[in-house]
Amino acid sequence: MINKQWEWKTPQINVLLEQANLELGRLGSYSELVPNIDLYIKMHLQVEANKSNRIEGTQTTIEEELMPLRDLDPEKRDDAREVHNYIRALKHGVDRIMQDDFPLSSRLIREIHNELMQGVRGEHKTPGEYRTSQNWIGGSMPSNASYVPPSHNHIPDLISDLEKFIHNDTIYVPALIRIAMIHYQFESIHPFLDGNGRTGRIIIPLFLLNSGILKKPCFYISDYFEIHRTEYYDALNRVRLNHDMIGWILFFLKASVETAKSARIKFGMAVTLVDEYNRLIPQIGGSAENVQAIFDAFYNNPIQNAVVLSESNSISKQTVSRILTAMHEKGILDEITGYSRNRIYAMKKYLDVFRV
């Protein structure tokens, strides 16, 4: 149970907490000032989905995940579907909080899990419902597992306690400390038969939105967790084995500092690159409106082909093909198939901004 007042005597936490709040404040201010930030956030979210699912073992690249499923090798499609579901689940949570003014709660967590598990591996493991049997992490059975979560009989009380902690305004626990503890507790409860890691990582940006720390969904921490995967799991396990909550909080705050700083830098790089491309639009030739529409389509999804662009923008395929050829000649696009027909183009410089 975590719904209580928490205190610490570790000065390093105070320093890191100050740094994390400062970086989050800078990110929040920047995200509210940048034109078209929602487009950039979409690509930032795409990288988050890729990294969060890679922690769970998926192997698809961001380019593959941006392509239509029919164009992927069959063995890659399941991985891509899981990434698509992650994006859909996160967007669902964001919409519920920002548009419906719905609180981060047990009900919303179950809704997110339901979206996450539709039509993918684990879809028969009661999507959107807390488990009614024992599960475990690692090993072939509880006796040789690396971690055995609490019995399913305790889940209602544990989730209720977690939900109260999320919204308890009678205790004085800073928001970033609180979400660090929420993430740890959710992962330790492991309330679903599958998809707990991804659901737990989705909860982090939703909490920051729900608590008003950020006004835009622009903070995604899975990239840091994926890069420091061993340290991430070790920090969680040390709480379970040695009650080292301080160590976990220090890791989480450091991750928050680096994540917020990295996001602000990426958005700045995206703005600079888009400004550079805007100056090239008159050199492409033809209708500026059509050219701008094609550029905007690539900002929305950096992997495109002429047929989809023609249909989605109501521009003739001949015109689209001419624009794509000109953009390719200017070095704005790369052709990634090597085919003479049915070509697929990638705005790689733009994509690279978000995955560095």
From TrEMBL:
Domain Fido: 104-254
Protein origin, superkingdom: Bacteria
Any matching Pfam family: Fic
PROSITE patterns registered for this protein in UniProt: FIDO
Parts of the chain that traverse the membrane: none
Protein's name according to its UniProt entry: Fic family protein
